[in-house]
Design the sequence.
């Protein structure tokens, strides 16, 4: 078998649903083998999309996402998406073709950038193949490592000439790596949870690591009578309709319900979560008396929030063990807690529903309507827009792996390729992406892929003609905005050019009807929302601002105060 055929067989043995990428002279053998062996592939328009598509598909399915790129520009284009998967703990395998390295390899080959060296800082592991016989083994090892512990991207670097070499293989899958559970630390955590006089009221903070164990999480929460808050990427780990679900983030930046519920919490049980900068609005998470931190990666434990008990464990194994000890940790039914949560959630909802902006669409009006109209199985991909924080606050997510955002690398343009890939591997569900207009300009041409393939993604673009996210960070500190205005775009013409249907939503009144028409259109459609952010309070931003100012030292505060005072009285150019 050729190296290319062996690579494809290995991918098929791993159950790869689709390979995302763009062919080039160095990996045409691989693409040809995919076609011969009927391994599904999806051609994208830019390799940023290749890695992001693998990420989007992985998040939607819980399985390893796969992409294939050429060395040089294909590789460097893909680095942003690999970086997102690295920081957001998403399992990817990248088949990165390399230049030839054998004794007869020539100097100055095309795309001769240092492939493995470029990949190493952004990958969990880079496997360099130097002989055709190693190709399947390296691919299987890559899948194993990508899934193990804290998931992440693994690159398999294969010099192109090896794809054409021939070898005799025995196809064989290695056993999965064991899921960790530090028994001593578990006992310690159990001891604390089983003693209410020490642990008091328990609250659960659930991250992305909980997505594959929603039933275990629910059962543990009910046993402990614990309110459950999630990180942004953990949204849906517990169905938001559950009476113990309090929404996202337990500080001033998340839902009011979570903030209130966690004021009364004495011990937080944080599972599969990293307390990263964005998900804590610049580390402004309130301190809680006792912290039990559970994570599959020991280096994550207690990093930003000191842990009284640090448990190196796979979330599923930890939750299973806790349930097997449920008699020891069971708390009395607490109808008062459930009533308070229900009241706070009703209050949160009422705040979201009040339209505060009338000159164009109020972002909350859009998300409240999305919440009403989404089906429980729908997948929604958010981008790096100011709106992502309104969405996190207001969208209720009825289960795991339905709500996705690029959390810790904040890669603009991510939602579009991620949503297309999700639709490719999950054709039975409706997939929606929500991008700001700035994000849309980064990867909007990828919508042509949805049109070409007939993938009926609903692409929402929130058009405010600007980088509002940057404006809201710049304005209070500099009293002006710089480099934030976007060119006006004719979105109807753009949709037509890409082969998408088009609908525009210009006012709050149009939101229910037009959103309904757009979401129920049978094919891919651009839903162009003329949005205005002027005047809407954003809890995440207020918390971020306070935390930022609190952390400045006195000279920095003085400099900032002087700048703000001077610019407040001097006329200045508002924009750009
Ligand atoms: C690739 C990349 N470049 C720059 C940034 C910094 N950044 C974060 S949000 C943002 C603006 C987003 O604008 P838009 O998509 O229009 O969203 P809006 O906030 O206006 O809804 C920028 C430039 C980033 N996160 N990623
Ligand atoms: Mg914008």
Sequence:
């Amino acid at each position: 078998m050729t190296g290319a055929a062996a690579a494809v067989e290995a991918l098929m043995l791993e159950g790869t649903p689709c390979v995302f990428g763009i062919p080039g002279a160095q990996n045409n053998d691989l693409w040809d083998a995919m076609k011969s062996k009927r391994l599904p592939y999806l051609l994208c328009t830019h390799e940023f999309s290749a890695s992001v598509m693998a990420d989007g598909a992985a998040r939607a399915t819980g399985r390893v996402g796969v992409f294939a790129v050429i060395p040089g520009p294909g590789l460097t284009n893909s680095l942003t998406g690999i970086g997102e998967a690295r920081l957001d703990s998403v399992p990817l395998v990248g088949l990165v073709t390399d230049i030839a390295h054998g004794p007869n390899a020539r100097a100055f080959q095309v795309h001769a950038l240092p492939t493995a060296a470029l990949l190493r800082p952004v990958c969990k592991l880079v496997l360099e193949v130097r002989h055709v016989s190693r190709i399947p083994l390296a691919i299987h090892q890559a899948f194993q490592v990508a899934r193990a512990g804290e998931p992440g991207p693994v690159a398999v670097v294969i010099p192109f000439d090896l794809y054409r070499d021939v070898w005799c293989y025995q196809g064989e899958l290695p056993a999965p790596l064991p899921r960790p559970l530090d028994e001593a630390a578990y006992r310690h955590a159990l001891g604390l949870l089983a003693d209410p006089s020490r642990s008091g009221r328990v609250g659960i903070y659930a991250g992305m690591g909980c997505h594959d164990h929603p039933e275990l999480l629910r059962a543990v929460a009910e046993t402990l009578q614990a309110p459950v808050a999630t990180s942004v990427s953990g949204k849906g780990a517990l169905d938001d309709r559950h009476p113990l679900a309090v929404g996202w983030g337990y500080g001033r930046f998340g839902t009011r319900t979570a903030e209130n519920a966690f004021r009364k919490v004495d011990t937080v049980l944080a599972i599969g979560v990293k307390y990263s900068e964005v998900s804590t609005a610049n580390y402004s998470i309130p301190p809680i008396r006792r912290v039990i931190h559970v994570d599959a990666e020991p280096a994550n434990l207690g990093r930003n929030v000191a842990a009284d008990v640090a448990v190196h464990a796979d979330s599923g194994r930890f939750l299973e063990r806790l349930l097997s000890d449920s008699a020891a940790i069971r708390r009395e039914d607490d109808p008062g807690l459930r009533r308070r949560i229900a009241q706070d959630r009703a209050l949160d909802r009422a705040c979201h529903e009040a339209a505060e902006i009338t000159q164009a669409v109020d972002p909350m009006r859009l998300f409240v309507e999305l919440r009403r109209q989404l089906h429980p199985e729908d997948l929604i991909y958010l981008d790096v827009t100011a709106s992502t924080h309104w969405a996190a606050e207001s969208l209720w997510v009825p289960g795991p792996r339905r709500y996705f955002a690029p959390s810790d690398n904040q890669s603009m343009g991510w939602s579009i390729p991620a949503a297309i890939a999700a639709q490719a591997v999950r054709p039975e569900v409706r997939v929606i992406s929500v991008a700001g207009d700035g994000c849309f300009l980064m990867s909007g041409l990828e919508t042509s892929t949805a049109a070409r393939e007939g993938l009926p993604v609903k692409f929402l673009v929130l058009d405010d003609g600007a980088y509002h996210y940057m404006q809201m960070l710049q304005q209070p500190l500099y009293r002006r905005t710089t480099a934030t205005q976007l060119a006006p775009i004719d979105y109807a013409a753009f949709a037509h050019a890409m082969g998408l249907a088009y609908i525009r939503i210009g006012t709050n009144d149009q939101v229910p009807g037009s959103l309904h028409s757009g979401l129920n259109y049978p094919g891919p459609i651009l839903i162009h929302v003329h949005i205005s952010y002027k005047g809407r309070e954003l809890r995440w931003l207020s918390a971020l601002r306070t935390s930022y100012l609190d952390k400045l030292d006195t000279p920095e505060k003085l400099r900032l105060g002087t700048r703000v005072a001077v610019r407040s009285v001097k006329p200045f150019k508002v924009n750009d």
